[in-house]
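Let us practice reading a record.
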Amino acid sequence: DTPAIELVIEAMKKIQQVTNRLVTAVPKICRYDYVNAVVLNQAGQALVFESPRQKSSGVYWQILSQFLSNNSDPFTAVQTALFATTGHKTNHWSYLGSHSIDTEQDGGTGYYFCARQACQITPPQPNGHPTSLAKWVPLTDLRYALLDGRIANVSDALTVSLALLTLIRP
């Protein structure tokens, strides 16, 4: 699978060739604020949403994520997303940080969290991703998924990396 940014760069090169003009501005990739969370159950396994790749064989994994509506509190939004998507709750949250997609343009800000000891309270609701399968995986598998490309979304990879750094005991 070709990463999205490489597709954007290739499209910009084609536009430059056709119009004979240098394209210097990268299009806005994400304009909305969002939350991402690595969610761990009481057994220490991580929640992933597995989907088939569209253009090749294999699968990719996503973690819990939610776009924020105007003036939403990121922490409240991530807690709500966890419960609405999975039926799980926890009182063990870590804030991992945030970053803006692009400070020069009107880009969104991502807020990253890690939830530990999540317990199922109610059955999960349909998550709006009919092709994705929610499953719990060992942290070792999550680490390997960073390396082998199963975690293809950059913001998901960043969140997983930050979470794994906080979970490692020196």
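A brief commentary: The chain has four helices and eight strands.
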